[in-house]
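Field reference: sequence -> structure
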Amino acid sequence: MQRTLKSLGLLLGFVLCLRVDAQNITVLTGQYTNSRIGANLNEPYLNSSLVNVSSFGKVATLNVDGPVYAQPLYMHGEVIGGVAHNVVYIATMNNSVYAFDADTFTQLWHVTSGLGSPMPAQATCPGSFYTGATLGILSTPVIDPTTNTLYVVSAEPDYPGSVNYYHHRLSALDVTTGNYKFRSPINISASAPGSAPDSVNGIIPMNQSNLIQRAALLLSGGTVMIGFGSCGPDPFPYHGWLLGYNALDTSSQLFAYTPTPQTEGGAIWQSGRGPALDTKGNVYVETGNGSVSETTDLGNSIVQFNSQGKVTASMTGPGRPLLDTEDLDLGATGPLITPDTNLLIAGGKQGNFYIVNPSALSQPSGLLQTLDVTGCTVNPPGSCGGIRSVAYWPSPSGGMLYVWADMDIVRAYKNSGSGFSLAATNSANAVYPGGILAVSAASSTAANAILWAVNDGVVWAFDASNPATMLWNSNQNSGRDGISYYHTAQQFTVAAGRLYVPDAGNDVAVYGPIVAAPAIHCPSSSAIRNRSYSGTVTASGGVAPYQGFSLSSGSLPPGLHQSGVTISGTPTQSGTFTFSERVIDGRNNSSGTGTASCSISVSRHG
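Structure field:
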């Protein structure tokens, strides 16, 4: 009993502390950092002692108007309506952006007007790539905290009723109101010099009706960078694109680049992961199927850009012809730059990681190690081993690289200083698709961390030091914690002690510490007819502050009424009157709602 009370006290303290300051935690971009390590290294609340089936689970559901593929973003202490809130931002395939209070789960604002109507599923191109009933906001937005601006890309039909022709728009939204900023929204368009099959007089137009914008946005040096890939199955011809826009004037396009100006292909899609940025200001992307030439075309390649969008180095994926003919895009994963050793890690559908020295990207010596991270033996090769997510923990004892490939198991690789080698595995749920991953740790030097994953409708937590140890999963108490199918392209977020996981429906499941609903303490049960009465309803437990004390069923004695916590008046009828009291705590949801049956007996005489 003492242990139970102690655990409850810790949980209550956890939630109260979270509401008070959240230690300036923010998640402003996809995969948490511009280096795309897939790790939140400022997560002091979640640890292996807390995350178990008894004390951790689903605490809320955020309902929205469409499917969510974009990674939810998080800001601490934003002043909205004169009140400071911790805020989670959610973008939907219905071209909506929502701001929710991350502690009470109440909606703060919601915008759709100006983002346009989403593209219908009948469309030949977007409807073929399993994006659901509509194609709206597919990619993860990016937030600039210095200007309090959220940048987001949406898709909409070229004209009402169109099912085959659509375009994209860039919007800059005020994070406190959802209002538009910086001359947005603007219709995206682009062209580039080239002699590709779809070029006209030496110019390649950007045909958005065979493209989707899946890669997370990147904000670097005042430029919003946006990657485009094909909608799949790959139409002919198409081109990948990387576009740059002025963050303070979205009407100003700074550059437009296609990897395949002479041929076609070269999608920049990266399974929703964004372009990576190193400490020198260089930007990296991985491209998909397409041709390669020494001077121009860079399909199935790692490409380095400077801040002006100019190519400065590249490396073609080993075995490129096979990658192209077997649809084994190198660009299926997206690059990651390790913060502790400054290595570039790239991978794709073939099931290999390429460990690269980014300073020698164009040199043969730049490829330091090729790592088969799947153990895949299934044929054809495209049916297993695809890497769609990766996470990296710069552990004080040596960096850890995590992958959960298609039809494979969870694998962790340790950087020994001379290369990566297999350190641990967990055989949980080897299915298609593989898992989307993230790491959480209290700091960049923390000795302990959690590896989070979602695949096939199950949320998992593993000990990041040894993923063979599973801490918790949502099927252990599926009635409380379960979600429906989770698409391989959907992205989740861990921030400030909670997980925000898009479901297959139009909602986002919120996981965190399980705190019991508040207990109600009834008012005085004795009253005398025709004499003044006053009683107080109180509550304990749950999450303060309490709100919404009310009568949920039954009747008070005639002559009494309730106002907030006080029941008062002069009873006019004797007898026993039973009623149900309800209180809602600071969570403002069903988990924070407590009820109790109360009664007041009115006697004829004192």
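Note: Residues 333 and 388 are 5 Å apart (CA to CA).
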